[in-house]
Amino acid sequence: MTSAPEELLPGTRRALLHRIAVAQSEGRSPSLVAAVVRGGHTVWDGARSSVDGHAPDGNVQYRIGSISKTFTAVLVMRLRDEGLLDLNDPLEKHLPGTGAGEVTIAQLLCHAGGLAAETPGEWWERSPGGLRPALSDVLGAEPFKHAPGRRHHYSNPGYTLLGALVEALRGRPWAEVLEDEVLEPLGLHRTSALPRAPHAGGWAVHPWADAMLPEPLEDLGLMAPAGALWSTTADLARFAAFLLAGDDRVLRAETVREMRAPASPPEPGMADGGYALGLQLTKVADRTLAGHSGSLPGFVAGLWFSEADDVAAVVLANCTSGVPAATVAADLVRIVAEAEPRIPEPWRPMPSVDPALLELTGPWYWGTAPHLLRLTRDGGLELGPVGAMGRSSRLRAEPDGTWTGLNGYYAGETLRPVRRPDGTLSHLDLASFVFTRTPYDPAAPIPGGLDPRGWRGSDQGL
């Protein structure tokens, strides 16, 4: 349970307001709304408008474009956690006959499936979904631009396939499944596939004159899982808090952490940080952010969060271009993180200590490289080098007494404590590497064996 939110300092609040005011003014957006989350709570929100006295608030819907993809990814990860699919399954196993069945579900989630970026025919974002009544109309006769798994290539049709996968396995429309499994449990009552009043109108602003043109608001049909959702800053703030901490009613913390892990590198020549499972990644001034940008004609959106700082920000505007919503959201995260650094939780001892686990802790040596193994408060282990060189990893306990790496080089690898016949701890086997209590312990099964003369100096016959 999160504690009550700490109020931001006046200087921080003014800096946030200044940033969105500059964005709305220079970007010439009819309106712009924003919110900041810290510690699981909204700690600031703000708005700017071209109409005096009519600034929107956190209850006004805006179209969020491709942030919709993250919601679709959550539904897919729920199916995985329930055992209804594996991320390495080819699409054909669950959704046959698409013509793109060889691509895996993981590749679709991280845009590494090689599918086209857009649909054939008319620009799907500005035309009725009825023009694409079937998946064949979304994919076209030649759906692949690259071999699956070879490179990151952003694909809107790929997320239409994921939406169709959800419908096939749940037996209900994507929007209904989203409502029941994500929106309702998280209390996102102002997020919907179709607009609900009060909502902003979408506008195009002339590039060389202060004139506006209304954008059409189309029902995107099958493309909805890729970008159709409407939402508010209040709802997206709650969604960002979920993406940081998880919620067992929707996805546990371990799964949302998996969603944030890099899954495909950035496209060649691009400066972003690549893509995870339904989340974009970026690095701004040594700060790693996860989230998503979004745009549809008439709207731009940005949602970013920093796990290290426990800060998230949302920016929504109703203009086709002009406001770099994702950049502004990243700036809001930076402003709070730098002005008011995260205050660590108080140290507290573990509720209880298992002597068998405590025995694993302390210094270990991989060859001559010293490492430390620490027992964490949640009953996990952390392995890290002593000094700058070496590999670090968090590890999770398994029922059989082994441990599984959760991140870094050892992600998915097994650590096995090996005991002597008398029950005492001999060494650790981690992905075939032998870790010993002393460097190259002669009593341990060191691969390749050891010189029988042991350690020696320059006067001992090097």
Describe the structure.
Helix 1 packs antiparallel against helix 10 (325-339), helix 2 packs parallel to helix 5 and helix 2 (67-81) packs across helix 6 (174-186). This protein has helices spanning 10-27, 67-81, 105-109, 135-139, 156-170, 174-186, 224-227, 233-245, 253-260, 325-339, 355-358; strands at 31-38, 41-49, 62-63, 203-205, 212-214, 230-231, 280-284, 287-296, 299-306, 311-317, 362-366, 369-375, 381-385, 393-397, 403-405, 414-419, 425-430, 433-436. The N and C termini lie far apart (61 Å). It is an alpha+beta fold. Strands 11-12-13-14-15-16-17-18 form an 8-stranded antiparallel barrel. A 6-stranded antiparallel beta sheet has the order 2-1-10-9-8-7, sandwiched between helices. A two-stranded antiparallel sheet has the order 3-6. Helix content is 25%, strand content 21%.
Concise description?
By secondary structure, the chain is an alpha+beta fold.
Task: Give the secondary structure arrangement, pairings included.
Blueprint: H1 10-27, E1 31-38, E2 41-49, E3 62-63, H2 67-81, H3 105-109, H4 135-139, H5 156-170, H6 174-186, E4 203-205, E5 212-214, H7 224-227, E6 230-231, H8 233-245, H9 253-260, E7 280-284, E8 287-296, E9 299-306, E10 311-317, H10 325-339, H11 355-358, E11 362-366, E12 369-375, E13 381-385, E14 393-397, E15 403-405, E16 414-419, E17 425-430, E18 433-436
Helix pairs in contact: 1-10, 2-5, 2-6
